Known about the structure:
The structure is a single chain. By secondary structure, the protein is α+β, with helices and mostly antiparallel strands. It is 24% helix and 18% strand. β4 (80-81) and β5 form a beta hairpin. α1 packs parallel to α5 (180-187) and α3 (96-102) crosses α4 (123-131). The chain is elongated, with a radius of gyration of 19 Å.
Amino acid sequence: MTEANAGPETPQNNTIYINNLNEKIKIEELKKSLHAVFSQFGKILEVFAAKTLKHKGQAWVVFEDLSSASNALRQMQGFPFYDKPMRIQYAKAKSDIIAKADGTFVPREKRKRHEDKGNKKRKDQNDANLAGMGLNPAYPGAYGATPIPYPGGLKSMVPEAPAPPNNILFIQNLPNETTPMMLQMLFLQYPGFKEVRMVETKPGIAFVEYGDEMQSTVAMQALQGFKITPQNPMLITYAKK
């Protein structure tokens, strides 16, 4: 069921519904990129996108907390994602994951339309329920999945002497499944962005170029420690020239 005509009266929800997405992007890459862009707002439980014609150009992102969903909706509305502005609203129905966590889950064949009374959830019960549910991670390295260790660990990647400020950033400790497009979506949010460069033979690192060092510094400060997956906080320094 499409939600394209859901109006602003749709009640707040842990799940956001996104449409006007680029239909040429493969589903798995789309889900990874959505996770990368939206994980800055809070813990994501699931990213759902279907291959069916009916659901093309649409996706759902389920956050653990309502405040995360609200911030994501407000701040990412109209964000140019794969050259198309995202249209975001709250999903009409509560995600099954959230419904199971707060005890209001009803199997679809028995489900009736009714307003959920009292949206209070006990976080400790939430965590216990979620842990026992065997959530499907959105992609390898997502919450609950096995982290991909970086060869040599974090220490071996830290440069001996920091390079002086310049317009190119050196990004380290990226998960192996990171794509240039995922990084572009993150760094494009900051003024002066020019390009992302990755080296195929060296997974886990990238270079991001800005117009000048002031612009690169703003991006560095904003995204330092950003986690594309929970196990991989970005390490950002100025590139050596």
